[in-house]
């Protein structure tokens, strides 16, 4: 499967501080990819590098087979919606569409017009007078009307109320189905990832802690509950992701492809939130390779 984004030893430094360092990943095309991790993990820096808004300090990044900052033709294939869903408060909705048409050679005016009509956005209204949800929908419309091959969204619904967030994500999934987009979506809200994403990347301290199709990740992770036990005594092939102990009981989240036969353990499936929190619980280790990477 071709990679929509490929990074190797990628790093970005602001002054003396590394925001992203020694980062390596392959993100496959044809997925809605959820990017999740704690604050400071490097998510926004990675997405801005992918969108050509930043240049790497070290390493390499290729998006859709080319360098995102290389030339306008490369950037034309990438749509980007930032965390604050930026629009110009003093411009009308129609002004934004005219600006989009001037800046983007592949601009789809019919798509933009039809989408805004379905949303009930009056072209005459100034962006500064729109609600947060309407501004987010306008920003998404601008990203989609660019007709990108890859749409990058950095926490696009973080500031929205639950209803506006649901409407935004519903519109996103309709666009993905209609236009067969590849999407990389950064979010702190696991419920949003469950609703939209079929591929997950957990990023902690510039390291990929887990990467793979959501169904496979959930199928290979289990919660074990039983008498207190040293995790190092588990059978080979059972990788401990997180461990919690009381005086008498151990609760582990493990990754394994093999059946679990030990009758001392009570075995249950994990949720996506369980999995994400387990990998975020401890700092990322030193190895450059992901702790878990599922490939088809």
Automatic annotation (TrEMBL):
Organism annotation: Microbispora rosea
The protein's name in its UniProt record: ABC-2 type transport system ATP-binding protein
Domain of life: Bacteria
Keyword tags: ATP-binding, Nucleotide-binding, Transport
A GO MF term: ATP binding
Residue stretches making up the ABC transporter domain: 5-230
SMART domains per UniProt: AAA (SM00382)
Listed SUPFAM superfamilies: P-loop containing nucleoside triphosphate hydrolases (SSF52540)
């Amino acid at each position: 499967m071709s990679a929509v984004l490929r990074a190797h030893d990628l790093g970005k430094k602001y002054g003396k501080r590394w925001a992203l360092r020694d980062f390596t990943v392959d993100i496959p095309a044809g997925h809605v990819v959820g990017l999740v991790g704690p604050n400071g993990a490097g998510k926004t820096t990675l997405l801005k590098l992918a969108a050509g808004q930043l240049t790497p300090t070290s390493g390499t990044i290729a998006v859709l087979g080319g360098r995102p900052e290389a030339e306008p033709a490369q950037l034309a294939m990438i749509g980007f919606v930032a965390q604050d869903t930026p629009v110009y408060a003093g411009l009308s909705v129609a002004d934004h569409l005219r600006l989009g048409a001037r800046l983007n050679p592949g601009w789809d005016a019919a798509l933009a017009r039809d989408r805004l009509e379905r949303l009930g956005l009056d072209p005459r209204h100034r962006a500064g007078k729109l609600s947060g949800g309407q501004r987010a929908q306008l920003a998404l419309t601008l990203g989609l009307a660019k007709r990108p091959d890859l749409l990058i969204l950095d926490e696009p619904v973080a500031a929205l109320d639950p209803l506006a967030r649901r409407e935004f994500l519903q519109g996103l999934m309709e666009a993905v189905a209609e236009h067969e987009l590849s999407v990389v979506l950064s979010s702190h809200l696991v419920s949003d990832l469950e609703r939209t994403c079929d591929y997950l990347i957990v990023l902690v301290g510039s390291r990929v802690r887990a990467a793979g199709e959501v169904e496979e990740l959930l199928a290979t992770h289990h919660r074990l509950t039983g008498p207190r036990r040293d995790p190092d005594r588990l059978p080979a092939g059972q990788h401990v992701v997180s461990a919690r102990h009381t005086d008498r009981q151990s609760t582990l989240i493990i990754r394994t492809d093999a059946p679990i036969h030990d009758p001392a353990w009570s075995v249950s499936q994990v949720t996506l939130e369980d999995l994400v929190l387990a990998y975020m619980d401890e700092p990322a280790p030193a190895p450059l390779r992901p702790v878990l990477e599922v490939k088809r």
